[in-house]
Amino acid sequence: MTEPLHVALRLPLDRFAVEVEITCRHPVTGIFGASGAGKSSLLEAVAGLRRGARGRVQLGETVWLDSSTGVDLPSHRRAVGYVPQEGLLFPHWDVRRNLLAGARRARAHGQDPLARLREVVPLLELEPLLHRPVATLSGGERQRVALGRALCSGPRLLLLDEPLAALDLPLRRRLLPLLRRLREQLTIPMLLVSHDPIEVQALCDALIVLRQGAVIAQGEPRAVLTDPAVFPLAQREGFENLLAGALATEEGQRSARVRLANGAVLTVAPPPGDPDSREDVLVGVSATDILLATEQPRGLSARNVLPATVREIRAFDHHALVTATLTEGGPPITVEVTAATPGQLGLTAGSPVFLVIKATACRVYGRRAG
């Protein structure tokens, strides 16, 4: 069971103060917001890397900070694994030695670093890299090593500060399935700072949104990102509906199919890689790339026409967000339309609709996908 993390603190910054009171009970909690919102500062305060924080930080029964009683444990006593934006590996060591750089901390926290190493290496696919010099690693390999090093230090809490931000977008997307597998197989609670709506949907169970140091929304990630108060920011950062499924491509075909967890099938443009591949992938579809129809359309070039039911309609600015659930079930899908569209189509909660999606609008994210 995940140990609850309680954070109630105030941290003065140059332009504002980070002032939050949150309790994280899920395996992975995301912290989302625009650049300069105070996300990294909050993470550093939890890690004990920011001086001047006042309040209380408690993981399970262990108090790391309580300014009312003078408790303020230094970072090396907080049993956290911290992964900054830049991995900051030791350049004169090979990968294995970097992974064990926190062995002393692991032992101090009652952990066996070698046992954790044996667990982490296959999980992060590091076996071929163990004796490689750090200088020969690619950006994605360096970030995997940095993550492995944090895990091998025996943490009770993993803090990830934009761990993929320094990588180019295609590589970030290829690493998402690996990080999803990591979160499924480890029992260590995580705080993940990100400005990427796709990352937080793929990896997080709960999401907290900061604006100038204050919490403006929190809850299930997709619901939070499509909140009218948050969606304009999420849209600017690249919001997409994210659907999990299994990719199936066939020799000689110019399209591929993804069978979603609910049984629905999406036709997509085949991603680069082995045409016979069968793998778990994520499919991203922008809210602006989906058309709504009240009757089943015919004679379209779009390959996907999915029956659904409107669940909710919410207005923001001069637009509306229509959230619908596929007839086969599965996660809700959000469509952005003009403010007049729901009225013109006679849409209300419970209305049957068809979601029309071009194959080329479906972005497939997986190990071979770009």
Q: Give the assembly state of these chains.
A: single chain
The CATH H-level superfamily of the largest domain is P-loop containing nucleotide triphosphate hydrolases
Average per-residue pLDDT, rounded, comes to: 90
Distance between the termini: 35 Å
How does the overall form come out from the CA principal axes? globular
Radius of gyration over C-alpha positions, nearest whole angstrom: 22 Å
CATH class of the largest domain reads Alpha Beta
Structural class: alpha+beta
Read across the widest sheet, the strand sequence of neighbours is: 7-8-9-3-10-11
Strand content: 25-35%
Major sheet size, sense and barrel closure:
6 strands, mixed
List how many beta strands DSSP finds: 21
Helix fraction? 10-25%
Count of discrete alpha- or pi-helical segments spanning 4 or more residues: 10
Q: Which stretches are poorly predicted, pLDDT < 50 over at least 5 residues? A: none
Give a short summary of the structure.
This protein is of the alpha+beta class and 370 residues long. It has helices at residues 39-47, 95-99, 103-108, 113-123, 139-152, 169-185, 197-203, 221-225, 231-236, 341-345, and strands spanning 5-12, 17-24, 28-32, 54-59, 62-66, 71-72, 80-83, 157-161, 190-194, 206-211, 214-219, 241-249, 256-260, 265-268, 278-285, 290-293, 304-316, 319-326, 333-338, 352-357, 363-365. The mean pLDDT is 90.
Detailed description of the structure:
By secondary structure, the protein is α+β, with helices and mostly antiparallel strands. It folds into two domains: 5-236, P-loop containing nucleotide triphosphate hydrolases (Rossmann fold, 3-Layer(aba) Sandwich); 242-365, RNA polymerase II/Efflux pump adaptor protein, barrel-sandwich hybrid domain (OB fold (Dihydrolipoamide Acetyltransferase, E2P)). The protein is built from ten helices and 21 strands. It has helices at residues 39-47, 95-99, 103-108, 113-123, 139-152, 169-185, 197-203, 221-225, 231-236, 341-345; strands at 5-12, 17-24, 28-32, 54-59, 62-66, 71-72, 80-83, 157-161, 190-194, 206-211, 214-219, 241-249, 256-260, 265-268, 278-285, 290-293, 304-316, 319-326, 333-338, 352-357, 363-365. A six-stranded mixed sheet has the order 7-8-9-3-10-11, sandwiched between helices. The longest helix has 17 residues, at 169-185. The chain starts with a strand and ends in a 5-residue tail after the last strand. The model has no long low-confidence stretch (mean pLDDT 90).
